[in-house]
């Protein structure tokens, strides 16, 4: 590089400068010693932004439009050498990290994590089927699955029901595949997890007929106080609302079910969406999901230090 050469810096599409790290310059110059006069700055992924591209869980919800929730992924388990089946959902927090529920990856009988080679992740999908032809979908095998050391499955009433999934192939960010924002400093939680506030969940869970939905749905779920939740859910379910859970939902048939587990409950603030909860547990009625009860979500904020360690490390 010749001395005096000037270069204009910018972040590539779907990346931005951190607000706390704006360098105050956009042009750098090559010096006589071959070094730039300013260091290159680090860009980070855009997050929590939605873009709808036309009409396109979750029970009695509505069809999700492309780009509405670009952070939602399907968690797939290997059915045979050629095929995967969708079992859970998850939320992208970086190009190679997904947050989901621990019980999606836990062998209750052996009390250990299933091998990561059994799983794959698909982003940018509206159709449930692994092999559905979708131009904007991206797929990756799983490199590693991390659970909390004190997660004991149903023996522990699903406390600490959270998982970090590292992808073998980083996602290419776009308007249809983009991370959800993490409120690392927990600035907005009190106003978002408050009576009168509602979040959104997306998924391919079973409908009221017990059949898995083939199209991605979304449902609005209002926050419910702990006392109201405890007083209105079935008695045998109350123990599952552990210290790291909160409740949300309506008792009107709009709920989540098998296949929605691990999906994110997200709340919007000034046009930006934040991950607040992870679909964890809901009551059962007559052997099926109880669509007229509240749902227990894992508090993301309770584990943000743990998540951030992996986020920064990667």
TrEMBL record:
<dbReference type="GO" id="GO:0006508">
    <property type="term" value="P:proteolysis"/>
</dbReference>
<dbReference type="InterPro" id="IPR001314">
    <property type="entry name" value="Peptidase_S1A"/>
</dbReference>
<feature type="domain" description="Peptidase S1">
    <location>
        <begin position="58"/>
        <end position="312"/>
    </location>
</feature>
<keyword id="KW-0645">Protease</keyword>
<keyword id="KW-0768">Sushi</keyword>
<keyword id="KW-0720">Serine protease</keyword>
<keyword id="KW-1015">Disulfide bond</keyword>
<dbReference type="InterPro" id="IPR001254">
    <property type="entry name" value="Trypsin_dom"/>
</dbReference>
<protein>
    <submittedName>
        <fullName>Limulus clotting factor C</fullName>
    </submittedName>
</protein>
<keyword id="KW-0865">Zymogen</keyword>
<dbReference type="Pfam" id="PF00089">
    <property type="entry name" value="Trypsin"/>
</dbReference>
<dbReference type="InterPro" id="IPR051333">
    <property type="entry name" value="CLIP_Serine_Protease"/>
</dbReference>
<dbReference type="InterPro" id="IPR009003">
    <property type="entry name" value="Peptidase_S1_PA"/>
</dbReference>
<dbReference type="InterPro" id="IPR000436">
    <property type="entry name" value="Sushi_SCR_CCP_dom"/>
</dbReference>
<dbReference type="InterPro" id="IPR043504">
    <property type="entry name" value="Peptidase_S1_PA_chymotrypsin"/>
</dbReference>
<dbReference type="GO" id="GO:0004252">
    <property type="term" value="F:serine-type endopeptidase activity"/>
</dbReference>
<keyword id="KW-0378">Hydrolase</keyword>
<feature type="domain" description="Sushi">
    <location>
        <begin position="1"/>
        <end position="45"/>
    </location>
</feature>
<keyword id="KW-0964">Secreted</keyword>
<keyword id="KW-0732">Signal</keyword>
<dbReference type="GO" id="GO:0005576">
    <property type="term" value="C:extracellular region"/>
</dbReference>
<dbReference type="InterPro" id="IPR018114">
    <property type="entry name" value="TRYPSIN_HIS"/>
</dbReference>
């Amino acid at each position: 590089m010749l001395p005096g050469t000037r270069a204009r810096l910018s972040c590539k599409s779907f990346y931005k400068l951190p607000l706390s790290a704006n360098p105050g310059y956009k042009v750098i110059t090559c010096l006589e010693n071959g070094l730039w006069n300013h260091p290159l700055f680090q860009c980070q992924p855009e997050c929590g932004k939605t873009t709808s591209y036309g009409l396109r869980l979750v029970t009695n919800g509505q069809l999700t439009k492309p780009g509405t929730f670009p952070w939602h992924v399907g968690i797939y388990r290997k059915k045979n050498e050629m095929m995967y089946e969708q079992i859970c959902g998850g939320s992208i927090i970086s190009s190679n990290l997904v947050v989901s529920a621990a019980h999606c990856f836990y062998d209750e009988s052996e009390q250990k994590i299933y091998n990561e080679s059994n799983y794959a992740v698909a982003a940018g999908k509206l159709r449930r089927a692994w092999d559905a032809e979708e131009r904007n979908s991206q797929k990756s095998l799983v490199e590693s699955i991390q659970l909390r050391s004190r997660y004991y499955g149903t023996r522990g009433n699903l406390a600490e029901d959270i998982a970090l999934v590292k992808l073998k192939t980083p996602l290419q960010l776009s308007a249809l595949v983009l991370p959800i924002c993490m409120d690392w400093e927990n600035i907005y939680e009190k106003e978002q997890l408050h009576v009168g506030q509602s979040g959104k969940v997306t998924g391919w869970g079973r409908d009221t007929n017990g059949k898995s939905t083939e199209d991605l749905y979304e449902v609005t779920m209002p926050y419910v106080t702990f006392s109201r939740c405890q007083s209105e859910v079935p008695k045998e379910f109350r123990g599952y609302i552990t210290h790291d859970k909160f409740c949300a939902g309506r008792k009107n048939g709009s709920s989540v079910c098998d296949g929605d587990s691990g999906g994110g409950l997200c709340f919007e603030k000034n046009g930006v969406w934040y991950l607040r909860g992870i679909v964890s547990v809901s009551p059962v009625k007559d052997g099926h999901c109880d669509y007229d009860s509240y749902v227990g979500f894992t508090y993301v904020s309770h584990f943000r230090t743990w998540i951030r360690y992996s986020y920064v490390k990667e």
